[in-house]
Specification:
It is a single chain. By secondary structure, the protein is mainly alpha-helical. The chain has a domain at 28-88 and 99-124. It has eight helices and two strands; from the N terminus they run H-H-E-H-H-H-E-H-H-H. It has helices at residues 2-11, 14-17, 36-43, 49-61, 71-82, 100-103, 106-113, 117-124, and strands spanning 24-28, 92-96. Strands 1-2 form a two-stranded parallel sheet. Helix 3 (36-43) packs across helix 4 (49-61) and helix 4 crosses helix 8 (117-124).
Length: 126
């Protein structure tokens, strides 16, 4: 929410509009990068990166048949947004997550099942 408000505010700022500077941001989905192993370790209660990877897959990918993105899956849309093709787009937070945010949100998933993230993760792995 903070990023969205900031982008909207700056995107409508006279100082940027007068210079034809557009302000946009992306909200990326699960993307495999050089930081992935560290994130997986921190996700696992035991610090095991494989366990963390399974938890992330079970919670954020398996439930809707998704898959992790490659860095270029985030980069290509940024190139287009920054080009003259999208010259009238400004002040937008763009979700690049293979439809995850349009499918469900964590709150809706938890409320629907009345389960914790840990319970959902265990159920998905079976």
């Amino acid at each position: 929410m903070i990023v969205s408000s900031y982008v909207t505010y700056k995107g409508m700022s006279k100082e940027f509009i007068s210079k034809k500077i557009r302000i946009n941001a992306i909200n990326p989905g699960d993307t495999v990068t050089g930081l992935t192993d560290g994130f997986n370790k921190s996700t696992s209660l035991t610090g095991d990166k494989e366990e963390g990877a399974r938890m992330i897959e079970n919670i954020f990918l398996k439930s809707w048949n998704g898959f992790p993105a490659k860095p270029e899956d985030m980069g290509y849309p940024l190139v287009v947004i920054g080009s003259c093709i999208c010259s009238y787009i400004s002040g937008q937070l763009i979700y690049i997550d293979y439809g995850l945010t349009s499918s469900w949100t964590n709150a809706a998933l938890l409320n629907q099942n009345n389960k914790s993230i840990e319970e959902i993760s265990k159920d998905s792995s079976n």
